[in-house]
Write a structure and sequence with these properties.
Elements: H1 4-12, H2 28-44, H3 51-64, E1 71-73, H4 75-86, E2 88-91, E3 94-99, E4 102-108, H5 113-116, E5 124-128, E6 131-132, H6 138-145, E7 152-158, E8 166-171, E9 173-176, E10 180-185, E11 188-193, H7 200-214, E12 218-222, H8 231-238, E13 245-252, E14 260-264, E15 272-277, H9 284-295, E16 299-302, E17 310-318, H10 320-330, H11 337-344, E18 353-365, E19 381-382, H12 413-424, H13 438-451, H14 461-478, H15 480-489
Parallel strand pairs: 11-12, 12-15, 15-16, 16-19
Antiparallel strand pairs: 1-18, 2-9, 3-4, 4-5, 5-6, 5-7, 7-8, 10-11, 13-14, 13-18, 17-18
């Protein structure tokens, strides 16, 4: 982690630097108590344990005793978190969550090494490089999987109902995570926004440029399963969609942190957004969705949102040695590295930190002054949630370009997309794997026969064209929320 990240991340996460963590005089008794606990642990534990590791454990306990969003990161965990917020890292391109067997793939990033290796959403990783990871935290597993670009990692994976572990070797690479994907559907632009990371606004604006070039003003903005992220990214995107007025207000507990009101400044938005939401649309997603709903500049389709209306800020925590060093020099008991930067212009380095804390500091209110936390947002049009077919999201299946014929045992993204379309159609394919094997070829023949086109068992231009038309129909057929949004947008001419 480079030193400049301490400065740059302050602005990126809207960290308010006035909060000072001071060791108060009345807490001296507790400090001595903690010291004795550490002494006891070191003395009686059967193996050697460093004082720093015990302090890190204590910090995890302190911040873990608050709410579910507040936590302490050691330096390795902080590096992983910071990289994910910035939108790129070296690894394989997956999001993971902890399960009893190990970790489960929650998301596979497009055009990532993981996607190219055939790793799928809902795959369960039980081994990394031959070692069992049962009981490991998701942060620890992520650290094992990540590595220098060009190196390899071998994953032991359980898929579907199988109990057999299959080994998948993946070459790591630089994963540039675009949280935004988009496509033109007739006179509508479909935009999927999966998170609010540091580059969300940039990619969203690229989609708007394509809309402008094509003369499109109607938009389906898909915020389903978007857990949130940086508040300023949600605000910047809302400023393209919401007329003049409040977008959100951040209300902080600390008297040293001033409440902030974010506003839009455009007189009349030029886009008409239909926003898709569900029970996993949270935090920054709810800021954006509520601003559009309250302004009446668009409408919401789907199910009630998650209801996370609190905001977290990230603070660097000084190591005990650095804390004592600066306390002796300046006579102040400050733990937060940002405060030293602001107050004394000290360039705090990585070696002077023990970790970072992500802490809930306040809550936000909507344009209408409503609190969302624990309540969520009720969409304007309630439509039951879309459930991916065998874990495959129909909106992650891409339009196929005409690029020659793919023969038996051929590989490529067009094979992958063909397999995913055929699975949605009910053809008996186990999993999409990018390989046009005998099983896939037989299914293609059945599809070609159904459509009355030449039966080759290969992916040629005629088959691609037919599958592309099929894909458009499937999106409307299997995703009722998306279909409702398209239907409502047709009323705007």
């Amino acid at each position: 982690m480079k030193r400049k990240k301490i400065r740059s991340f302050c602005a990126a996460l809207l960290v308010f630097l006035q909060v000072i963590f001071v060791v108060p005089v009345q807490a001296e008794g507790y400090s001595e108590y903690i010291d004795r606990v550490i002494d006891m642990a070191k003395e009686r534990y059967y193996q050697d344990v460093s004082e720093e590791d015990l302090i890190k454990g204590a910090l995890k306990g302190i911040f873990g005793a608050m709410d579910e969003y507040t936590t302490f990161f050691n330096m390795e965990e902080a590096e992983n978190f910071l990289s994910s917020m910035e939108g790129n890292y070296q690894g394989i391109g997956v999001e993971i969550i902890e399960v009893s067997e190990g970790v489960m793939i929650a998301r596979v990033f497009s055009n990532s090494p993981a996607e190219g290796a055939g790793i799928l959403k809902d795959d369960i990783i039980t081994q990394v490089n031959g070692s069992d990871i049962k009981g490991f935290s998701s942060q620890n597993v992520a650290a094992l999987i990540r590595g220098e670009s060009g190196t390899y990692v071998e994953l032991g994976i359980i898929r579907g109902d199988s109990t057999e572990i299959m080994n998948v070797r993946v070459q790591r690479g630089v994963v540039n995570i675009s949280p935004v994907s988009w496509r033109v559907d007739g006179d509508v632009m479909y935009i999927k926004l999966s998170s609010f990371s540091g580059n969300s606004t940039y990619y969203f604006e690229q989609a708007l440029k394509e809309m402008d070039a094509a003369g499109i003003i109607k938009m389906v903005l898909d915020l389903r399963d978007n857990p949130g992220g940086e508040v300023n990214q949600a605000v910047n995107i809302a400023r393209h969609l919401v007329r003049m007025g409040t977008i959100t207000k951040l209300d902080f507990k600390s008297e040293d942190a001033k409440d902030v009101v974010y506003n839009s400044f455009i007189t009349k938005p030029k886009y008409i957004p239909a926003i898709l939401v569900n029970g996993n649309s949270a935090s920054a997603s709810e800021i954006l969705a509520s601003a559009v709903q309250d302004s009446r500049d668009g409408f919401l389709v789907g199910t009630n949102t998650f209801g996370k209306g609190v905001v977290q800020n990230l603070y660097p925590i000084l190591s005990p040695a650095a804390y004592e060093k600066y306390r002796e020099i300046y006579g102040e008991s400050i733990i937060d590295g940002y405060d030293w930067i602001n107050k004394y212009n000290i360039n705090i380095g990585e070696s002077e930190l023990i970790g970072w804390t992500k802490i809930t500091t306040g809550h936000y209110l909507t344009r209408s002054g409503n609190m969302i936390h624990g309540v969520g947002i009720t969409p304007d049009f309630t439509v039951d949630d879309y459930k991916p077919v065998y874990g495959i999201n129909i909106h992650d299946v891409y339009h196929m370009d005409f690029s020659g014929e793919i023969l038996l045992n051929g590989i490529g993204n067009d094979v992958y997309n063909t397999e995913r379309i055929l699975i949605h159609k009910g053809y008996e394919l186990e999993v999409p794997d990018n390989i046009l094997d005998v099983k896939t070829s037989e299914c293609i023949k059945l599809y070609q026969k159904e459509k009355g086109i030449d039966i080759t068992g290969t992916i040629n231009n005629e088959t691609r064209s037919t599958l592309n038309d099929e894909l458009k129909d499937l999106r409307l057929k299997v995703d009722a929320q998306y279909a409702k949004a398209i239907e409502l947008l047709e009323l705007f001419n």
